[in-house]
Amino acid sequence: MIKKILVSFCLLLSFLSFAQEGSYSPYSFYGIGDQRFKGTIDTRAMGGVSIFPDSIHLNIQNPASFSSLKMTTFSVGATGSWAKLHTETQEEKAKRVTLDYLAVGLPLKKAGIAFGLMPYSSVGYKIRNNEVIGEGDTIRHSFNGSGGINRVFLGAGYEVTKNFRVGADVNFNFGKVETSSLAQRTDVQFASREINQSDLSGFSVDLGVMYEGKVNKKLHAFGAISFTPSTNLTTTNYRNIATVQLLQLGGVLVVDQDTIFYNQKRTLKLPTRLSLGAGIGEPRKWQAGAEITFQGSKDQKNRFNDINNGRFENAIKYSIGGYYIPNYNSFSNYWSRIVLRAGARYENTGLILNNKSIYDAAGTLGFGFPITGSLSNINVALEYGKRGTKAYGLVAENYFNLGIGFSFNDKWFVKRRYD
């Protein structure tokens, strides 16, 4: 088990090099950026449904599930993304490889604890466009953004009765976001550059409840609630505006500059979030369920007050999904122990641009491959979806995500029977 953790830690170090390029979307400019963590690989393969307790998988979306662990579990996941971005006149391609999460879960009789880290949100885009302002006159615009918010969490779950579990976790959120814009008129020697930087930090809490009860001899019913109260992030903002000269080798020579503000303090609100889900199934054979998530994004703000075309509304997400295992305890046929997962989701992201709500929809498919000779496994999730629209002067994103997760399981703290 220790060797497996060391190998995964090395994987983490390699993935961290991509942390500042976690998004390709121009929509990540607004608010705190794109929300990166959308569940572990196994739950994402089911459309994001996170209502099922699991003895060998960490369910980070609901801390009540930590008490269902039967073995020490070490989980790590990463995603490769490929996308086409469309406007009414242009088309571009983008790709990213990102770390999704790194977590450890420990069973403690009727309880369980878990801790880990994840990139929570990301800002990442590079946009170039030309604005025609008159006969023969053009302004060349360049927009860049990078950074995001990371999250460290510590949580615990407890089995109150055979049917009910409760849990809570505490998160520390921290990170830095930097955006810049450059504009040059073709008939003017110098260009204008603006750099905005925000340092963000703050705590948040997640609460969870899970239910599992028998319908008959085979079927079980499942229910889950998770709740995240609204909390504030403290931001320290910096803005610099400069007149620059563009060099032929791609560099920038600063001619004159002015710092508009430095160390300006503001607060950004992380919205209230409530998820309700229910399902039915035969454990270790098949399970299916649905989940709805409400997010009070209406009060969410941008990092700076002078963004006029972007605002927020309350968000909502619908998820359906499940899994099927032909024969989980087969010793002679490996393929019959592979877990088949599928699902779909549809959401209003809560972002409004040019008075148009931004929607995101995707279908998912996944597989869980057991590692022979252990209870560990490799999970794969395939996701194809679309976000936004190319109407209203906006951008439509068609994307394909490939997620790979490792769940290593072993028994720790076992008392020796013989010396």
TrEMBL record:
The protein's name in its UniProt record: Long-chain fatty acid transport protein
Q: Which domain of life is it from?
A: Bacteria
Q: Which organism is it from?
A: Flavobacterium agri
Keyword annotations from UniProtKB, A to Z: Signal
Signal sequence interval, chain numbering: 1-19
**Entry's SUPFAM superfamilies?**
Porins
